[in-house]
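Continuing the batch. This is chain 6 of the set; chains 1 through 5 are on the previous pages. Same settings as before, nothing changed between runs. Recording input and output for traceability.
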Amino acid sequence: MPNHDINASDHLVNFEQAVEIKSNLDSGMSSVLVQKDSEKDELFIGIYLSPNVVELLSNDCPIERLSNQNLNAYTVLVEELSHFHLIIQRGLSKLPISQLELEWQGEVDKLLFSAIRLRHQCGEAHYLHLARKLYDEAKIIAEDTERYWEATRYAARLWYDLITHQDGIDDPGNSKVLRAILGELYELPWQSKLDRITQVKHAA
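Output for chain 6:
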């Protein structure tokens, strides 16, 4: 699970700092940036949030009220934080991680944290509405669209199976069922994750 001793806000970088790590970075694309110093055996991780995302989060705070208008900005933030913590977790555990697994975890976390927000704000998680907005209506603009679509497809499969077949998840922030399933998946290597995803509905 994420290491809560490491504060992601301490790793926020501006665009000038970000391009020192990734020279071809698009200023409009939020990203987690990793720089490895092999000689010192150190890893620097920076989180860059695009100006439009920061502006939306500031002017229409999703913590106060999550809506269709600020959902995209909120899920961008969740996704980058998801990437950040999974990279840290795998680095501390000396375990490998693939780009596909990283993107998949981000897609899973986007729906989870959005559902937690909605449940807190209006009493319902609105899983199906979120799944349709985040997965069925997804528009992917990236260099490697195939990988992003694959991650989205696997995340959608997991969540639709959970929503359809699993009881005890109506309160996502306090569900022992969700915590057990998602916590187990978080620790597994990618191939084991795929095997486990196919078993979720049968475990319900």
